[in-house]
Specification:
The structure holds 2 protein chains of 2 kinds. By secondary structure, chain A is of the alpha+beta class. Among the domains of chain A are: 100 residues, no CATH class; 84 residues, Immunoglobulins (Immunoglobulin-like); 103 residues, no CATH class; 176 residues, no CATH class. Chain A contains 29 helices and 17 strands. Chain A has a 4-stranded mixed sheet with strand order 2-10-9-6, with no helix packed on it. A 3-stranded antiparallel sheet of chain A has the order 1-4-5, with no helix packed on it. In chain A, helix 21 packs parallel to helix 24 and helix 26 runs parallel beside helix 28. Chain A is globular, with a radius of gyration of 31 Å. The N and C termini of chain A lie far apart (89 Å). Chain B folds into 2 domains: 114 residues, no CATH class; 298 residues, YVTN repeat-like/Quinoprotein amine dehydrogenase (Methylamine Dehydrogenase, Chain H, 7 Propeller). Chain B is mainly β. Chain B has 5 helices and 28 strands. In chain B, a hairpin with a 5-residue loop joins strand 1 and strand 2. Chain B starts with a helix and ends in a 10-residue tail after the last strand. Classes of the chains: A alpha+beta, B mainly beta. Chains A and B meet through loops of A and helix 2 of B.
Amino acid sequence: MKSALIFLALGLTAQAAEPVTFLRDVAPILNKVGCTSGPCHGAAKGKNGFKLSLRGYDPEFDYQALLYDLSGRRFNRSDPARSLMLAKPTQQVAHGGGLRIEPSSKYYQTIFNWIAQGVPYGDPAKDKIASIAMEPATIEMDKPGTETQIKVVAHYLDGAVRDVTKEAVIASNIPDTADVNTDAVVKGIRTGEATMLVRYEGKFGTVPVTVLNPQPGFAWKPLPQNNYIDQLIDAKLKRLKIQPSPAIDDAGFLRRVSEDLTGQLPTPAEAKAFVADPTPSKLKRAKMIDTLLARKSYVDHFALKWGDLLQNNRKFLGDKAAWEFREWIRDSVATNKHYDRFVREMLESRGSTNDNPAANYFRVTRDPKPTMEKTTQLFLGVRMVCTQCHDHPFERWTQNQYYEMTSFFSGVGLRPGFESGEEILFDKRDDFDVRHPKDDRVMKPKFLVAATTASLAPVALPDGSDRRKAFADWITSKENPFFAKSMANRMWSYFMGKGIIDPVDDIRASNPPSNEALLDALTKDFKDHDYDLKSLIRTIVNSRAYQAEITTNEWNETDTVNFSHQTPRRLNAEQLMDALTQATGVRPDFPEAPAESTAEAYVDPHVGRDGFLDLFGRPARDSACECERKTDLALPQALNLVNGKTISDAIADPTGRIAKASIAGVSDRALLEELYLSTLSRQPTAVELDKGMTYLRGGESRATRAQDLLWALVNSKAFLYNR
Amino acid sequence: MHRLLGTAILSTIAIATQFVPLLAAVETPSYYRDVRPILQRNCQGCHQPSLKSSGLDVTTFADFAKGGRRGPAFMASDAASLVLKYVKGELQPVMPMGAPPLPKDQIDSIAAWIAAGAKDDTPAEAVDTISAAHPPIYSQPPVIGALAFSPDGQTLAVAGYREILIHKADGSGLVKRLVGQSERLNSLAFSADGKQLIAAGGSPARFGEIQVWDTAAGTLKKSTTLTNDTVFGGSITPDGKTIAVGATDNSVRILETATGKELQKIGNHENWVLCTVFGVDGKRLVSVSKDRAAKLSDVASGGFLENVNLLRGELSAIARKPGKDLVVVGGEERVPYIYMMDRPKVMKIADDTTLVRKLPRQDGNIAALAWSGGAKEKIAVAGLAPQVNIYDPETGTMVAACTGHTAGIYALAFNPAGDRLATAGFDGHVRIYSADTCQLQKDFIPVPLLVSRQ
């Protein structure tokens, strides 16, 4: 070996460069330029034989793929510029992903230097990121068109701080309101609010952006505030220069609240009486709310929602168990069983499903993995599905946590019982370990987060504990950061058409609440009342925000997220069928349902299957997702309303409302009033009366003309929507 | 709408302005300097050998000139050349597809070069400064992909960057440097008589090469380039007349050693073929692939005989027992399997009667296997775990574990006597162990390293 090998002409510019590590410097580049994206090498099977972890969630895996695959084919320490990992993204050799890195760029130089320095991985205790911070933390713009630069700063475990704005991935959750470009400049597009979601190396952050209305002439006109909900909503509206809509009239309120609490229209007599009642409106309404909450139809309506979410279905459970599970749910709603107990009874259930119907919770999903996914989505609003295969791309949940959480349920055993359709739920004594699919290691149960708001670190469960009891303790704890919040949010959505976090069962840092103070207050209230669901409902429906008109003014017409007005919500399939029953006076007859049963009280979606109810979006109960129920009104539904047999037959039925009225010989005016009250829950206006009477008297066959009027009424938006 | 249109006009103006200074420079149009970079950046994603969209490949001048299914991409001095029509949008779809159109100055560059006669001015050795007279200079040790002891046990061949380094077998000195074109050599194999050394490799995503060296003279007797990527796992028949390699086009290529002539292209695999080994008589061949299969083929006809087996992970290494048709295979599953090449009885579907033994699971994916000769045979297993495990093939028990590595091991070689094992890989060191005890005999960096001036 000749010692005279002192050459300078190397073309390497790395000697004086700063030390480069994979963790700190190179991995962020791979994520930023798109190498690790889903359609490229981050795909489940990689691309063209080269696989990286999705969005770089597993830097160790990516390091190995880049350096060790095929005996180190992708880098060249002897001549860094000839490295495949540089030649490909600069398109010096053919690259299906095209040009990703300019040879003259800083990124190229960083990767080059890293190879020239011997591809160091970096020290996870130093080079990993502790947190990211954004400046400014919130943005408020006076008017659309304003631009603001965001700066993203990474704090490393060793205390180092670095500006990573260029490598951070920033996206807007509502680009129509405020958008962001690749230079991290946020631009207000129109009045409203949006959130910038910032992502950098597995850390997430948000920057709320408010674009104020620049229009002159806004003067806040205070409206009555019924409770803390209105105070918190108004506080935000005032800042955003949004004038809320006032409360709806008594008739409209009664129709809305009856549908929302009981799934039924008020009867014509109730509708008349409520408007005529001289009690002050606020008091009258509060009393009506209590009346409705005490009705059997309230039990039907909320048992239906729980039946959906808990997937009560004879397909999974058989006849007897489905009816028993239904009775258990109904009993829980009827006795206003507090929410924590309701959940705990299911999670801790044991023994025969005949004796303990709550155990059917485990019969629907059976395997521990879907049971865990269902449990977290339902009761925490946290979706773990994607972490089965990889870390959550937009949250801090990891693949390890998926299996740690699953192991809380892996001891659940089911065996046939003594009677047909009965199963016995027991705790397995062995062979219930959950293993990680990557390396087969046993995953011990570990909570997703500690049950305290002070620390979010996951907590391991001591060996030998009763796993399901421990889980039930943890999930129902008032310290659990998700349990009460997700229910408060879900309940809110039932009355306002939209969650404060929406979708309601997808709570994550990148899906922020539209009014955090409001959600916090509802959550606290719910906890302070020991998870009393009726109390929570009562508070929501007594608010002015709930009772607001759907009609907007010039200041709130574009607002869709701040609850400055109510939103029309199409009646659910079952509500619609029951409303038609009242309107026409004819109840549909399904052999599987008890006589006189409302659609809201049917045991499962097999009643009247493939008919009107399914067309109007009744869920098949195949999923615990709130999204399984559809409430759209598209062409198939519209055609059914116009031409369908369900409606036309009911209207023309010889035992129906019109036939009865004709036989009783009611006057035209009385008939019109009855039709309006039974469909729209209000009296006809003078103009409506006038036109209606003219039509009724316009020719022969008064009954057919009355049927036409009824048909027109049930096809109106005022009937089809809760508004 | 008005606003959008305005923006579009503005940005057009901005682009035009930006390139005015470039247009001002008047030079003879050049393929190498002007056109090739445009093609490289904008067209090669699709028009490359492995995709050949529309039958067109623009990675070399010759292929570009040949054109694709719609005819030659250009004709000298023809302003109506296909490539111009496509980039100008006169033919649909506008190229580059799914991307913004080329800036006007780039279209002008291509047009000017065609107008000036469309000459190929690629320099003969575009940038190459490395040759036998100027061997590579190393500032860091290269990753080592292959090792081979000469049949006389005197020397150890080590794959470096652009060269093979011939060391004394005990690591006591560098004897010779065989400098070639390939950046990576994935396998080294001596002919039985030791007169020839076969190296298989190439430059990733550029070309594959098989080198045949005259070991005595240190000269390259034959270089055969094939495919557009490196080739893997080269092996040579006992008579030295035939070579086999695996390729990234999923084929196994059989070549005549003397002429480099391709005798067979065997296309039985469904993914990259990473290693090959001939049977004792050289008439049959086993190849392993990323498709998880080890396949037995007839060398003379190229015909498929059978799957040795179909395992659960990608296969990357294979070695044969000296003098007998037994092989050991390994890869992603981390378990080395010993198989017979011949069936003891008639095959039933998915039977496993050819399996002799499974060796214990390794801590990392397997990248290299070696089967020693000598009085007491051994199998060495290496891969991404920084440790080589040595097993007794007769019993499957571990004999010894060779430690001292800092990262993955990609190359293994037993000396002919079977008492020494050489290892190398990621860290660029060559380590020589006593094969029975794994006692480290020598640890050296096989390349001359640049002495820093500091």
